[in-house]
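Q: A reviewer asked whether we had any structural model of the full assembly, not just the individual parts. We don't, so I'm hoping you can provide one. Inputs are below.
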Amino acid sequence: MDMLISSIKTQYKMIVEKKNYYLMFLTIFIYVLINFFTNVFKYASRDVTEMYHPMRLLLLANTGYYFYFFMLLYPIIVIIPASFSYIYDQDINEQIFIQSRTGIKNYYFGKLIATFLSTFNIFTIPFLAEIILNSIAFPNNATGLLSNMSIYESTELESIHRLLLPNLYIRSIYLYVILLTIIWGIVSGVIATYALTISIIIKFKYKTFLFLPIYILSYVLYEVQYILPQIDKTTYYFFYFDIFDTSRKSLMGYILCILMMTASSILLAMYKSGQDSLL
Amino acid sequence: MKVYFKYLVYGIFCGIFQMLLYFRIGEKVLFSDIILVLSFYKPIFYISSIMDMVMNLIPIFIFQILYGTYIYRHFCSASVYYFTRCTNRRKWFLKESIKLFGYIILYLIILLISSTLFCMLNFEVVFDKGSIQLMCYFLIIFSVWFYITTISINIISILIGSHYSVAVVLSIQLILVLLLNVFDTCIPFENNLAINIILLKINPISHLVISWHSSKIPYVNKLINLLDINFVYDSSIVYLGLLGVIITMVGCIIINNKQIIYFNRETGGL
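A: Here is a predicted structure for the entire assembly that you could use as a starting point for your response.
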């Protein structure tokens, strides 16, 4: 266990100190701040009765172009910070030094956990910061919706049940938003870890091929809803990351997909560590 | 070289997968519809349609990633040994570009044949009047676009690395697609302003949408011209062709000035 923790710490430090990691973190943070300040200047001096709920102005709440642009680039952004870490290790043969100290199994599992944690941080911290900033900058007693409909309209009340966690939303919007942001971070971590595992199992000749698994997966999942008429829920990742999206979604399908990616990452890592081991 | 030949098999899977959509539509399939489905079908400027366009770009992205190392690979391993036997790099680059263009044409033909054969096996395919002209325009326009983007990835990879170059080129294409939404929000296309048509024609991605074009041949124009504007294919071919020539010239300059290093750019070893 100590060896695993030391492997995680070492590898986490190696990922975080790389240029592409902190540049990506800075870029996402600045992007979130741009969205925040755009809202601040757009809604400045608006009366509280006409003001939208602060949580409706988040980047992940789909306020406009910022969200669409971010989602378009998401398959690229999620891979760049940490999923290349195994490939970088192989470039300079660093894995030999770590494996000789911590063992092969601890190396692979440490790498998986470090990749997950580092990607989770990038995709959670800026967005949680935005929640705090929005709660401070905008009036908490504003209740308006971006559609300018009343929150008591029958269509609006019906659409609440199509959110991912409607009961939590009804209890507390803030808890709902925080939990979905954490889930978004977890999902991003799982996707980055899955891509990393693919790079461990398949030795890519060129780094660029690491973008293929995520793009193929997102395209296949997107087409499934059109190919299989039995599936009447959306399978487009875009709608599951939008916090207040009210299209028909499947929470069970979403969780199953993430669990399958996690399980396959763990199993493939176990297989690889068993393959390399002499004992 | 054989590896890039094997990648062409991806065209078969891509063609079949994109036609699986027809299982939910009908039994009779027009050949012109097959061409339109392979080229974003009939999109409008609403954001939901734009996002669907983005997902339909993914098979194109996969091709660009696969062939984005066609020229770059020569700058990875043993480049100093390779280029000491190649005195005229510009001539070599032009030769490789022509070979890459050949692969692209082959891929598009395989895509078209596999999708048509798949539909023929499952439905009745009707070769309607005008569909052959549409097929020719599809092959020309898409082959030039594939060439522009794949060569760009190859050239930028030599400068900054393969994974960053793919991120840059894919991002540019995604931004160009998202910019089409201005015709729904900022300057609605229904207003029929001259600026709308100019901005539409400047955006390279709009030239890929076969259904937005118009044609002087009436039976071809009947199948397309969704926007009811003068947007002929000849202008698309000239515009994209010009972009292709510029990218090739830039590639020649970069390749000629690139200092050959003795370690593998991709893995760091020899």
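A: Points you may want to mention in the reply: The mean pLDDT of chain A is 87. Residues 2-277 of chain A form one domain.
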